[in-house]
Amino acid sequence: MFGLIGIKDIxxxxxxxxxxxxxxxxxxxxxxxxxxLGVLAFIIVWFVxxxxxxxxxTGRILDKFMNIGLLILVILFQDQIKRFLVEIGSHQRWxxxxxxxxxxxxxxxxxxxxxxxxxxxCLNMSKSKTGxxxxxxxxxxxxxxxxxxxxxxxxxxxxxxxxIFFKNSPLHDGAMIVAGGRIKAAxxxxxxxxxxxxxxxxxxxxxxxLGISQSTDAMAIIxxxxxxxxxxxxxxxxxxxxxxxDLEARxxxxxxxxxxx
Length: 261
Hints:
alpha+beta; YojJ-like (1; 2 domains; seven-stranded mixed β-sheet; 10 helices; about 55% helix
């Protein structure tokens, strides 16, 4: 039996195993694992009844459900499907290919010229316990999120960032989006994560930061209004209570395409 297994079969098994691993990971992190297991159990029952036991009546009924099952799954798991595609498209190998195409572009500023103002602004806001949510674009476009706020399109400036998140500012409660070394928009609305593993003491900013990192390959920086702690969400994971040095390293690592996702 094992002598009949070739390289093509091994590759086939590895592909299926990888797909199942990513699906399981995404479902677990999004809190929909029980639904996925229920769907999987239904498919197993359908397969056993139709193929092995040849139960005609049960098989026909389950066949009807299977015919519309794909549409139901797409509607039911649309957020998870989107995240699954983002995970594949934003993988490090694809990011490397993307970087090759934009290597000749000269419109992006040197890292230190816009990363340090963000770090210093976050440090100042941390000391004054000013809440902030800053999103740094990866490869996936953020146009729809930018349009949900006010377009700014200005150079990254520490004072401007602190003014945007000043407690009496109308843009204070939204997110600021940075792309290509420029502040693209502020007061933006982000998708909220419903991950049940997020600590209860974390508020809407942390859940929104986690949500955008799950929906896209962007990095989100959070300054807590309650504690002043600086946190980062990237690749659907939260890193809490970072120092300014850690923050600078994380941003540099993300921009250079070496973020571990």
